[in-house]
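Known limitations

Structure tokens in this collection are predictions and should be treated as such. Users comparing against experimental data should check residue numbering before alignment. To illustrate the layout, the record for Alpha/beta hydrolase is reproduced below. The input appears on top and the generated tokens appear beneath it.
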Amino acid sequence: MALMQCDFYSETLGVSASMNVILPQRTTTQIGMSSASSGETRHPVLYLLHGLSDDHTIWLRRTSIERYVAPLGIAVVMPAVGRSFYANMKQGYDYWDFISEELPALARSFFPISEKREDNFVAGLSMGGYGAFKLALSHPDRFAAAASLSGALDARFFIQEHEEEAARIFGSMSEFNGSGNDLFHLAKLRAAEGSAKLPQLYQCCGTEDFLYEDNVKFRDEALRLGLPLTYDEGPGEHEWGYWDHHIQRVLEWLPLAK
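Generated tokens:
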């Protein structure tokens, strides 16, 4: 595998931005790791999103993500978005436009990754789980699958517990409800469309996680709406041991072309 730290200028944000990128490399002599490449000119790609207190380096620092993806021939793009909740902030930067439009286009211009829907996936933890489902439910035409690990799927809890910060991101609760930032609203829209091309969704959360009840709430609504959801729960808290284990399950679940 090849690992790259990419620092670049974002026209959308008006500032320099960063992402880490793992690219497949076919090797036969590397000791202790099996690496593969599909042989295609453009690799399948997983956009892997960080949580509220983290940045683009965190998945590499807290898990063995590079080793886990090595046999799969898949690229991984890990961007930094601060504490933005992957939103166009009411007072701040347009991180939603950045993550949904500019970043994928730039990544494809810099690196040999595919733009085909069947080759594009997104996953994340906590705030990043919210961002992953937001991307997939907002753009089902672009993503074949999305995974949320201990996701902050009902952002109302954040608005209630961090009122001032949340107001700078989302505005008021009334502005949030029924908007493009409301995953429950997006889920209803996608279900009402009855699209045959809904992205596959994977959701997991530990039963001791402080976000467990919100995850159960989203699970129940998604299943009621008939969304294609795979749900996984078991013992676990909001911590990296859980996420390191479950990102491996996510990679096994991804509908990668054989």
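For this record: The chain has a mean pLDDT of 95. The beta strands are 2-10, 15-23, 45-49, 75-79, 120-125, 145-149, 200-206, 229-234. Please report discrepancies through the issue tracker.
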